Amino acid sequence: MKAPAMRRLLLLLGLLLSAAGLAQGPATGWTLLYDQYGFWSDRVPADLTDKLNTLNDRQKTIKAVVYGPHSWVVLYGRNGFFYRGLPAAAVQKLNQLNDEDRDIADVALAPNGGWVILSDRGVWYASVPPTLSTHLESLHNDHHHLRHVALAPSGGWLVLYDTNGYDSDHVPLTALTKLNQVNASHQELRDIEFGSHGQWLILYGHNGWWGGDLPPGLEAKLRDLHDTGSTLIRAGLL
After folding, report:
1. For a Cys-Cys bond, which of 113, 146, 148, 152 suits 160, CB 3.0-4.6 Å?
2. Model pTM score
3. Secondary structure tally for the chain: helices H, strands E
4. Res 22 pLDDT > 50
5. Residue 178 belongs to what H/E stretch?
6. Strand order, beta sheet including 200-204
7. d(CA 194, CA 158)
C-alpha cells in the first residue's frame, strides 16, 4: 500500500475510534472488577496488587478500587477496606463505620486531597466543590439512595443515586452525552470514572461500556470481557 493511502487509512481508523468514544489515551494505570471475584489491573502500585490478590485468594468480593493523586483505597465485603495515603479524617470515618458494622457504599478521592464517603448511615466529605456538597446534602435529606460519586480532575463531579438518577457539574460533554443515551435506553448505570489525564469510562447493563482516552490495555480487556459474557462491575482510573 502506498504511503498516502496508508495515511488515509490510519486517519479514517482514528476518526472511527473517536466517533465511537473509544479513542485510546496514554498508558496510565487502571483496575477493572468483573463477575464476583475477578479483577484485572495494570500500572498500579505493587502493594495494591498484593492486597487485591489476597482478597481474590480468600474469595472476598471487591466492591471498589479508588485512586487519588498519592493514595488508594480498596472496599470489599460490607465494610472492609485497605488503604494507603488517605487523609486522617477519612480513615477515622471509615474505621468508625467498620466498627459500627455499617455498609461502606463508596469512596471518592479528589486531586486536591478532597474526599467523599457514602454509607447506609449518611454522607461525609471534605475539600470538595461547594456545588457537590450542597447537592449531596440535598439528596441525602430527601432520602435518595446515594450509590456513587465520581470526581474529575477539573473540579467536576457526578453523583449516581437511586436506580438510574444522576447529576453532574463540569464533566466531559462526550461522557454526559453517553450517560444520557444509556439512561434513555433504560439500562442500569453501574459506574462512571474519571482519570487524571482526561480519561472517562461508563459501565452499564450487564457488560456494556463507553469510554474516552482509555489506556490501550484497558480497552482490550473491556472488549474481551464483553465478548466472553462477563459482568462488568466497576473500574478505577489513575
Report:
1. 148
2. 0.88
3. 6, 15
4. no
5. helix 173-184
6. 189-194, 200-204, 208-212
7. 10
